[in-house]
Amino acid sequence: MKQCRKWTVLALCAALYAGAASAGEVGTMAKADALRAEPFSDAKTLKAFAAGEKLDILLKQGGWYKVKSGKLSGWVRMLSVSKGDAKKGTSTASGLLALSSGRAGTGKVVATTGVRGLNDEELKAAKFDEAELKRAEANASSKADAAKFAKQGKLVARPFDYLPEVK
């Protein structure tokens, strides 16, 4: 029991640290986007941001930043924000914007989920690892298991199309 409590405290501290790691940073809108009430694409829009607009980054959650602009706070897509104070004519956002559109300059569609934070060398050195893929697939849950878990945690349902079963 004592061991369980120790791990719970460590997990809570790690979660708090991860959320606080982005807190207090200045950001600049790399492209026009909406400030949302919740970190979801279909959440209520609170304000429309223009490219170049300044904001304060409060928290990171998934692919979203919780930000403050003036008296408003809400959520904006991570790929729409450049950390720091962007200077005119020196924007490095074009690469991120290309990734968020699904195109990376080659005209070929690319997958971008999970690549934020990896550098060019790491991406070029990446190799297919069937064993790791099988390990990841072993963690998959059925729709029924996910629904049971959500009900136990009193989570709010959001529509989501599941991938077809692998045969």
Provide a descriptive summary of the structure in words.
- With 167 residues, the protein is α+β, with helices and mostly antiparallel strands.
- Helix content is 32%, strand content 22%.
- It contains 5 helices and 7 strands.
- It has helices spanning 2-20, 93-101, 120-125, 130-138, 143-152; strands spanning 25-29, 33-36, 45-49, 54-61, 64-69, 72-77, 81-83.
- It has a 5-stranded antiparallel β-sheet. A two-stranded antiparallel ribbon has the order 2-3.
- A hairpin with a 2-residue loop joins strand 5 and strand 6 (72-77).
- 11% of the residues are buried.
- Structural class of the helix and strand makeup? alpha+beta
Order of helices and strands: HEEEEEEEHHHH
CA radius of gyration is: 19 Å
Largest sheet: 5 strands, antiparallel
So what's the overall shape? extended
What's the average pLDDT? 76
Instruction: Please state roughly what percent of the residues sit in beta strands, choosing from under 5%, 5-15%, 15-25%, 25-35%, 35-45% or over 45%.
Output: 15-25%
Tally of DSSP β-strands: 7
- Numbering strands along the chain, what is their spatial order in the largest sheet? 6-5-4-1-7
N/C terminus separation: 41 Å
Write the layout of secondary structure elements.
Blueprint: H1 2-20, E1 25-29, E2 33-36, E3 45-49, E4 54-61, E5 64-69, E6 72-77, E7 81-83, H2 93-101, H3 120-125, H4 130-138, H5 143-152
